[in-house]
Write a structure and sequence with these properties.
Radius of gyration: 18 Å
Keywords: Hydrolase, Metal-binding
Helix content: 40-55%
Organism: marine sediment metagenome
Number of domains: 1
CATH architecture: Alpha-Beta Barrel
Distance between the termini: 29 Å
Number of helices: 12
GO molecular function: imidazolonepropionase activity; metal ion binding
Protein name: Imidazolonepropionase
Largest sheet: 8 strands, parallel
Number of strands: 8
Order of helices and strands: EHHHHEHEHEHEHEHEHEHH
InterPro entries: HutI, Metal_Hydrolase
Strand order of the largest sheet: 1-2-3-4-5-6-7-8
Shape: globular
């Protein structure tokens, strides 16, 4: 027998409806995620399905996932909104996450991810994009804070989604309202999001598939945690950069190995040279990301 601390998952999108497995095969045919998203797939597809699902359906599905995750040893988990993209729907998702706390022993840490994507109606209009950003700043962030529905604010900082200036504007607004910060950073392209996250003292920057040496240097000289998500790399068929040369100075966390054990085992084989580093990956650094 091996006794370890319980597992902590610092990055999940557990509350959603619908399925996008067909997109995996599209990417295997050479179609990029951004190309799929431009045609109304990707996040936008899940937003449509989630809006059409009832609150009870979403709650039951979420509780089933939490029961399975808990059975494998995860006791703390972060859960993001992000598949609503309106004030009504984002708050609905966060309220369902709050309700779920009554029915599970897992400690849930909610994150507001209204800046996961732009609503479909705004994707091809700069004016409507700016209008949605102002809605996040002036309506969604204050209301979520007022109702105490989330601890963290997250954003998908990416080419063709939220650019660096928009990311900075939204993060500063969230920070001014007392939210701790997270970023989807350097996932599909490098626009300097990791360096911005470090500058704003973000708790974590997540994904990092396209991180630069400059971004790694910024992380190595900060308290910001690098959250690696091996399932995403597998899903996108993308390699990870070489983190081994930074292993003594970089604080690294990862998804709970119980959520995707085979994929995470591959990650551990690439980045963990000792059993202590496995525990750091799955427990200690992850708790920092959610505390």
């Amino acid at each position: 027998y091996i006794v370890t601390p319980s597992f902590v998952d610092p990055h999940t999108h557990l509350i959603f409806a619908g399925s996008r497995e067909h997109e995996f095969f599209m990417r295997n045919q050479g179609i990029s995620y951004l190309e799929i998203a431009e045609k109304g797939g990707g996040i936008t597809s899940t937003v449509r399905a989630t809006r059409n699902a009832s609150s009870e359906e979403l709650l039951v599905d979420l509780l089933n996932k939490l029961e399975l995750i808990n059975s494998f040893g995860t006791t703390h988990i972060e859960i993001k909104s992000g598949y609503g993209l309106t004030i009504k729907d984002e708050i609905r998702l966060l309220e369902i996450i709050k309700r779920a706390k009554q029915y599970t022993n897992i400690q849930i840490i909610p994150t507001l991810l209204a800046a996961h994507e732009f609503p479909l109606s705004a994707k091809h209009s700069q004016k409507l994009k700016e209008k949605y950003i102002e809605q996040i700043i002036n309506e969604i962030i204050p209301e979520v804070k007022k109702q105490n529905l989330a601890k963290f604010f997250d954003i998908f900082s990416e080419k063709k989604v939220y650019n660096l200036d928009q990311t900075k504007k939204l993060l500063k607004a969230a920070k001014a309202h007392g939210f701790k910060l997270k970023l989807h950073s350097d996932e599909l392209s490098n626009i300097g999001a990791t360096e911005l996250g470090v500058k704003l003292n973000a708790c974590s920057v997540d994904h990092l598939l396209k991180i630069s040496n400059k971004g790694l240097d910024a992380l190595a000289n900060s308290n910001t945690i690098a959250v690696l998500l091996p399932g995403t790399a597998f899903y996108l068929n993308e390699p990870y950069p070489d983190f081994k040369k930074f292993e003594t100075t970089l604080n690294v966390a990862s998804k709970s190995p119980c959520v995707s054990p085979i994929i995470t085992a591959v990650l551990f084989s690439q980045f963990c040279r000792t059993k202590e580093s496995v525990i750091n990956f799955s427990c200690i650094c992850n708790i920092v990301c959610t505390s």
